[in-house]
Design brief:
This protein has 289 residues and is α+β, with helices and mostly antiparallel strands. The chain is 31% helix and 16% strand. The chain has a single domain, classed as 2-Layer Sandwich (Uridine Diphospho-n-acetylenolpyruvylglucosamine Reductase, domain 3), CATH 3.30.465. Bound molecules: flavin-adenine dinucleotide (FAD) and iron/sulfur cluster (SF4). Flavin-adenine dinucleotide binds next to strand 2, helix 2, helix 6, helix 7 and helix 9.
Length: 289
């Protein structure tokens, strides 16, 4: 691991200023992703700016629930307001990582965790996301875990956050020190620049996540399909929320529609049928919740 400077600060504004002063600096929250990437030499900031205490708390406010960016994943998943009003989010967080990691991981860091593509982690392999212009090891490599939607010839990686899948279904909004961004717009598809993963600008700090009130609490489910039951990232995951109005949806038709534009790679065509079945399973679970 390379040497780095560790900086503490007592406000979001000063954290942002410090990051703008040093383009090689990175914010540190729980460190469960960033420190791993530094150990693997995938990321090498020369300064870490500790923001782990700056945006704590979970509270009800007009229109919905506020989750502080520094609130831990464990606190969020187990919070009575989350469990009561947004059980889908609670389930999704608890489906990820391990209890120990969730105790450290923050909500802001979870949103910004980087892909688990093995070529990204292996610095001996080409990877446009890690080193723009070097190529994509997964495109013609082992791509069983990779994308069936939204990929480009530059990058076929998937984004790994379970929490974000639920936040998308719940129409969450991401608040930063500069603006508010709908979660549907927050992450970018790889296109020609897979190294740019979201809309954040240099120095911009996530301060919290807003969950608008919704009618899904009574009928929602998060279904994650993975190679082994615990401690693994999703092959396919579905966050389903139902607002029932007399007639029940045709779940199979919805699944066909959702997967109709899928473009599988050499090793992951199985995800299309798996995706359809997981959607139907999630909708059935939501119905019976
Ligand atoms: C073994 C293992 C298994 C895992 N399994 C899963 C899983 O199954 N599902 C899943 O969803 N996740 C999983 N994770 C990922 C885990 O959820 C993330 O590592 C964690 O959520 C990241 O949060 P953090 O606070 O530790 O982020 P950090 O590592 O501190 O930061 C991550 C990135 O976010 C930036 N950042 C952090 N906070 C802010 C902020 N407020 N504003 C701006 N930038 C910020 C940092 O600069 C850094 O670039 C796993 C992790 C490990 C190590
Ligand atoms: S899929 Fe993306 S992250 Fe993986 S090797 Fe290709 S460019 Fe890198």
């Amino acid at each position: 691991m390379r040497p780095f400077k560790f900086t503490t600060t007592n406000s979001v504004a000063s954290a942002s200023t410090l990051a703008l002063q040093n383009k090689q600096a990175k914010f540190l929250a729980g460190g469960t992703n960033l420190i791993d990437l530094m150990k693997e030499d995938v990321e090498h900031p020369d300064e870490l700016i500790d923001i782990s205490q700056l945006s704590p708390g979970i509270k009800m406010q007009a229109g919905g629930l506020w989750l502080g960016a520094s609130a831990k994943n464990t606190e969020t998943a187990n919070h009575p307001l989350v469990r009561q009003h947004f059980p889908l989010l609670s389930q999704a967080i608890l489906a990820g990582a391990s209890a120990q990691i969730r105790n450290m991981a923050s909500n802001g860091g979870n949103l910004l965790q980087r892909t688990r593509c093995t070529y990204f982690y292996d610095v001996a392999m080409p990877c446009n996301k890690r080193e723009p212009g070097s190529g994509c090891g997964a495109l013609d490599g082992i791509n069983r875990m990779h994308a069936i939607f939204g990929w480009s010839n530059q990058c076929v990686a998937v984004y790994p956050s379970d929490m974000a899948v639920a936040l998308l279904a719940l129409n969450a909004k991401i608040h930063t020190d500069k603006r508010t961004i709908a979660i549907a717009d927050f992450h970018r598809l790889p296109g020609e620049h897979p190294e740019i993963e979201n809309l954040l600008q240099p120095g911009e700090v996530i301060t919290g996540i807003e969950l608008p009130n919704n009618a899904f609490a009574a009928h929602s489910a998060y279904v994650k399909v993975r190679d082994r039951h615990s401690y693994a990232f999703a092959l396919v995951s579905v966050a389903a929320g139902l607002q029932l109005q007399g007639t029940l949806a045709n779940f199979k038709a919805a699944a066909e529609l959702a997967l109709k534009d899928a473009r599988p790679l050499k090793h992951n065509a199985f995800k299309i049928e798996l995706g359809k079945r997981t959607i139907v399973a999630a909708l059935e679970q939501a119905l019976n919740a």
